[in-house]
Structure formats: C-alpha cells, structure tokens
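Bench notes, afternoon.
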Amino acid sequence: MWLYPWNKLIFSVLLVASIALAEENTSDCRISDEEFVSQLYTMKDWDTIYSVYRTNLPCIPDDGMYAEGYSDVIVRAFATQWEDIKTLHTLASRDPEFRVFVLRHINATTDPIELKQALSNAESNCPAGINSLCKEVAKQAAAALEEML
C-alpha cells in the first residue's frame, strides 16, 4: 500500500512524457502548405497517390485545404486515368484504409464535370473482377453530384 502514491506519480510522468513525444513526432513530419501543393502536382496515378497518402497521413490533417486537394486529385484520377483502376484495386485490397480514404474523397468539393466522368467510367467501363469497387465509386460520385444540386 505504501507504493501507491509512487505508482500514481510514475504513471503521471510516463503519460506526460508519451504525450510530449507524440506531439514532437507529429510536428516533425508536418509539411508546409507549399510542399503539399507541390505534391498534388505529382499525384497523377494511383501509385503516386498511394505513396503520398502513406507519407503524409497521419502527419498532416485530412481536412480543409489538404482534404480538398486530395479530393481533386482522386476524382481527377477516376475521370482521366480510369485505365489504371486495377492498380487502385490492388492497392486498396492490400490497404483497406486507403480504400476508405479514396472513397471518402469522392465528394461535392470537386469538379462536377470530372465527377460525371468518374460516374460514367464506374458505371460503364468496370473491368472484370472489381465490380465492388466500381459500385462504390459510382455510389459516391452520384451522391456528390446530388449534393451539388
């Protein structure tokens, strides 16, 4: 019983140290807005999008300017790089959190013309074996377009 106050003190010290270390590690991996914008210009295919995703998250927030940047790149890839959809399927199969990330970024903050093209691709150009992904893309794109009305 006489050790109880010491256990409480040790626990408190360890908790404060771990919070400080976590904040220090997070601040070390943050990038500037300019660096993020530069990354967006490199994200032209699913391999590069995935690489940036793995590098940035959870170091930078997935909200505000960052989320809108990811959304633009992702919807553009669905609209203009549809022939690369099997690469996305492979990456998303290996990393289900990436799949969730990608689908979350098909939203009403993006170009409606690109959303319509993404929807069209998902509904009419789905390669064999990835119907589930195509249906999810179509569902998200349709919902985003509906939200724009």
